[in-house]
Automatic annotation (TrEMBL):
Gene3D superfamilies according to UniProt: Cytosolic phospholipase A2 catalytic domain
GO terms, molecular function: hydrolase activity
Keywords: Hydrolase, Lipid degradation, Lipid metabolism, Signal
Signal peptide start-end: 1-29
Name of the protein described by the UniProt record: NTE family protein
Record-annotated active site: S96 (nucleophile), D212 (proton acceptor)
Gene Ontology BP term (one): lipid catabolic process
Pfam family, one: Patatin
Top-level lineage group: Bacteria
């Protein structure tokens, strides 16, 4: 009698309907058909969209620093505020007092270093009084000490070797045209830019005489644009004309320059994206004792406009 197990293969081999009935439930459980073994087509779900970051446009920021004698210490406060917010200035242009601070800044000094320089500065180091009694010159201050002081602060570097592109604006005495110094002796250019007529003697450079740039460009916005700035932050430290409390020659001369600069400023400042006006009530152009208050005023004025500054920088970068 044959063994039972030897009959199992033959049983299934000869009885196909039985085989189908036995395996159909198993195939059904796996979602298959005994007659159709092709794989199911699964539609993949859509991947979530990844936001594409905007490409930021390169932006060159220019700083135009205006004239105003001792009120120019406010420029240092503005620079301190910009640095504290990570705003890097690419181009610096200055007129008169603005050219002094601008040269120091372009040479690589930060706001805190310049503040220390300003507070340590002895007014006598930039005031080399000539003797009108023995001199045929038309000015009171020769300006040699100012030139030497600036050159010492920039380590004798010429303008084209400073760390940031820098320009100093002066007035050609023969033509009355504004001149932008971008090469040559840094101290001499700053001296020419600061040579208030009647206070400083005109400065001779390459056989031409130059005086204070504030006569033609009190806040040199247009020159910052010429040098390639896309966005310009202008700092206006000029004081509005007011009743004189002194008949001193220096006060009268500074008042005259302030009056001349008013109408020019109204036109030129419109070309700047940002205009910072430090509040310096009652501070005269010859008030070197108020330098610390001026620095604080500049810092405060810049911080007040910081949201607007950042918004305009962002908007221009995303264009």
């Amino acid at each position: 009698m044959p063994h039972f197990s030897s009959r199992i293969p033959s049983l299934f081999a000869c009885n196909k309907p039985v085989l189908a009935r036995l395996i159909a439930p198993v195939l059904f459980a796996f979602g298959l058909s005994a007659c159709n073994t092709s794989p199911q087509q699964v539609t993949p779900s859509a991947a979530p969209a990844i936001p594409v970051a905007k490409t930021l446009k390169p932006l060159r920021i220019g700083l135009a620093l205006g004239g105003g004698a001792a009120r120019g210490f406010a420029h240092i406060g503005v620079i301190k505020a910009l640095e504290s917010q990570g705003i890097n200035v690419d181009i610096v242009v200055g007129t008169s007092a603005g050219s002094v601070v601008g040269a120091m800044y372009a040479a690589g000094n930060n706001g805190f270093a310049m503040q220390k320089m300003a507070l340590d500065m002895d007014e006598a180091t930039i005031s080399d009084w000539s003797l009108p009694l023995f001199s045929k010159s038309s000015g009171v201050l020769k300006g040699d000490a100012l030139q030497a002081y600036v050159n010492r602060l920039v380590v004798q570097a010429p303008i084209e070797k400073l760390r940031k592109p820098f320009g100093a604006v002066a007035t050609d005495l023969a033509t009355g045209h504004a001149v932008l110094f971008q090469r040559g002796n840094t101290g001499a250019a700053v001296r020419a830019s600061s040579a208030v007529p009647g206070v400083f003697q005109p400065v001779k450079i390459n056989d031409r005489l130059y005086v204070d740039g504030g006569l033609v460009s009190p806040v040199p916005v247009r020159f910052a644009r010429e040098m390639g700035a896309d966005l310009i932050i202008a700092v206006n430290i000029s004081s509005p004309p007011e009743a004189l409390v002194s008949n001193a020659t220096l006060d009268i001369l500074l008042q005259t320059v302030a009056i001349m600069g008013q109408s020019i400023n109204q036109f030129e400042l419109k070309q700047a994206e940002i205009v910072i006006r430090p509040e310096l009530p009652g501070m005269k152009g010859n008030d070197f004792n108020g330098r610390n208050l001026a620095i604080l005023a500049g810092e405060k004025a810049a911080m007040a406009l910081m949201p607007e500054i950042k918004q305009k920088i962002k908007a221009m970068q995303e264009r």
